[in-house]
Write a structure and sequence with these properties.
Shape: elongated
Number of strands: 4
Number of helices: 6
Strand content: 5-15%
Structural class: alpha+beta
Largest sheet: 2 strands, antiparallel
Order of helices and strands: HEEHEHEHHH
Helix content: 40-55%
Radius of gyration: 19 Å
């Protein structure tokens, strides 16, 4: 019976958190290549190994050593974790374009001209203060959207709403 309750609660929480997971998947997929999930081995009961899956926060080409042993660990972080400004060519009016522009984490371009896109990229390169502000906004957005506090509040809110 406990196993069934655990599975039902887990399924319910996964459904409730699906929009957050989708945003997280997009934040990982858009700026980098590779799997969204990272698989690692952990030791469980009776020293038995099990596979643990978690969302990837580092690039795929990161050396397979502990992060503290890397010479420059920041270079292996994904865009959202590093707070790098985003420059993307995207369809006008999409939610992602609204988030990027509205949150000030980068610039979007909706046209088809390579020259115009290059000009926007050069503006980013030539504006270190603007890039620094975008980096701060990117980190703040990442912390706000993907923070453990927000996830817990969403779970509690969903449980309270379901209990009514």
């Amino acid at each position: 019976m406990k196993r069934i309750v655990d599975l039902l609660v887990t399924l319910g929480l996964m459904l409730i958190l699906a929009p957050l997971f989708l945003l997280l998947v997009l934040a990982i997929m858009l700026p980098s290549v590779g799997s969204v999930l990272f698989r690692t081995q952990r030791v469980g009961k009776v020293n038995k190994l099990f596979a643990l899956y978690k969302f990837r926060t580092m690039r795929m080409d990161t050396a397979q050593v502990a992060t503290y042993l890397l010479r420059e660990p920041d270079q292996f972080l994904t865009y959202m974790q590093a707070g790098l400004p985003i420059l993307t060519r995207i369809n006008q009016g999409t939610d992602l374009a609204n988030i990027i522009n509205g949150e000030g984490v980068g610039r979007t371009y909706t046209g088809n001209s390579v020259e115009e896109l290059r000009a926007i990229a050069e503006q980013l390169v030539d504006d270190p203060k603007g890039r620094q502000l975008m980096a701060l906004c990117g980190r703040a957005l990442s912390d706000r959207i993907f923070s453990p506090t927000r996830a817990v509040n969403q779970i509690i809110g969903a449980i309270c709403a379901a209990a009514k």
